[in-house]
Amino acid sequence: MSHNDDTRSHAAAGTAGSRTLKRSLSHGQMTMIVMGSALGTGLFLGSGTAIAMAGPAVILTYAIGSALASVIGAATGEMAVRYPVRGGFGTIATRYLGPFAGFLTRIAYWTATVLIAGVELVSVATYLNYWWPQLPLWAGIAAFGVALIVLNLTSVKSFGMLEFFLSSIKVISIIAFLLVGLCLIFFGLPGHAAVGTANLFNDGGFMPNGLQSVWLSLAVVMFSFGGIEMISISAAEAKDPSRSVRSSAKAMMVRLATFYVLAVLIVVAVIPWRSASGLGDAVDASPFVLVFEQLGIHGVAHFVNFVVLIAALSSANANLYAGARLLHSLAADGMAPRQLAQVNRAGVPARAVWLSTSGMVIAILLALYSPKEAFLSMIFVIMVCALTVWVLILFAYIVYKRVEPATNGFRLWGGQFTAAVGVLLLFAVWVALFMVRGSMVPAIVGVGYFVVLSLLYFARIRHTHMIDEQTFVEAQQATAEYDAMKYDADHALETAAKLGR
């Protein structure tokens, strides 16, 4: 492609009807999008269910989950460094595993993100009820849902700026929670003596429900790590995809492992684990709020409730973004109606955004009935989708390593062997999903959903589906152009420095 052709293709991204996404996300924005997607309701609300299942041993579950999530994130990141393509890991799965696997990967992820966005907004409305108990859940969901839709329809730069802001608040607040919690455990606070670590062993010991509970609770805990694959999705809109992917992946793995394990440790150390799990099967009590409520520090409890609300809102925002981009790539490759591939003048796939709000509609309907029972059911359906995506990502990585030359810079430690171990662990979570109380029906629904999708693919979609190799060309070209521009800038600075001497 000539330089003029390339210029025209990039300019087309800003015109209505174009199918090209704009590369306008900065390094910091991309990192915070990944963090914003992964840090949400799974930790701040869903952790109560995991604590009820495993007791203090949930610390081990989160450590295992963090390690497994790091494997998935590193594999995704390594492939995205080489191919920062539209559709992310779904497009990559199509190339290395075939069109059917690519279709399942993308549609499973789109379904998960749509449902997660809805679940996160249910959480936002639930946290609002902490201050205004009379406020209907559906009203909170609808109000914040409209705000997120407007934001996602404007421009990816606006989205990235807000997500950077929301995620920054969340990350800073979590760090503050960790510092305050560690002080409570080891030193105490004014008016509160150090609590120590006795709560980890007092009520039934460290593992009150047995070793099996550590494994079974993975079915809930892994939901917390949904969003780690956002690295690959957002790479298609990064200004400097190579550097951004490498830095984002490394930051994500370190921060998530630290945040998750330490945060849960603090919760079960500061208050008894039965209290930390709230009302057992209920989903309207955040363990992070309960910590300060039960210590009588109500002002901090209100602040923490604000933080977890921001966390849920940020995650809903990031998942709506991801869902729209996945649907855009499905349409561009002939797996969904072509109209969904078009972008507006701001470079946003507006029609894909609108269809991806279906999870919010489902959330509103659930809020009108029984959100407490529906919350975990939705999580288990989401887990079926997430596990499918993660397994296919690791399989794609194994094939990728066989046919592609070594990747410069960022790599998954252990390569194919580590990925294979990750696949085995994911299958173990699959088994656990069918053994946890209340998960059987949602898991069966999820499997049935994939059976229907498979039949639909072979009956209709495979005849119209195409593999868009142009997206790989564009990705490599964008990376090369940015590297060349950066080299020219560095060379100019070096020359100026020499002349200055």
Strand content: under 5%
Quote the average pLDDT. 80
Number of self-contained structural domains: 1
- CATH topology, what is it called? Amino acid/polyamine transporter I
Helix content: over 70%
- What shape does the CA trace take? globular
Describe this protein's structure:
The chain has 501 residues and is an all-alpha fold. It has one domain: Amino acid/polyamine transporter I, CATH 1.20.1740.10. 71% of the residues lie in helices and 0% in strands. The protein contains 22 helices and no strands. Helix 2 packs across helix 9, helix 6 packs antiparallel against helix 7 and helix 7 crosses helix 18 (358-367). The longest helix has 35 residues, at 298-332. The two termini are 41 Å apart. It is found in: Membrane.
Question: How would the blueprint of this fold be written?
Answer:
Blueprint: H1 3-11, H2 27-38, H3 41-44, H4 47-54, H5 58-82, H6 88-97, H7 99-128, H8 137-154, H9 156-186, H10 211-216, H11 218-221, H12 230-234, H13 241-270, H14 273-276, H15 287-294, H16 298-332, H17 350-355, H18 358-367, H19 371-403, H20 415-433, H21 440-459, H22 470-500
Helix pairs in contact: 2-9, 2-13, 2-16, 5-13, 5-19, 5-20, 6-7, 6-19, 7-8, 7-16, 7-18, 7-19, 7-21, 8-16, 8-18, 9-13, 9-16, 15-16, 19-20, 19-21
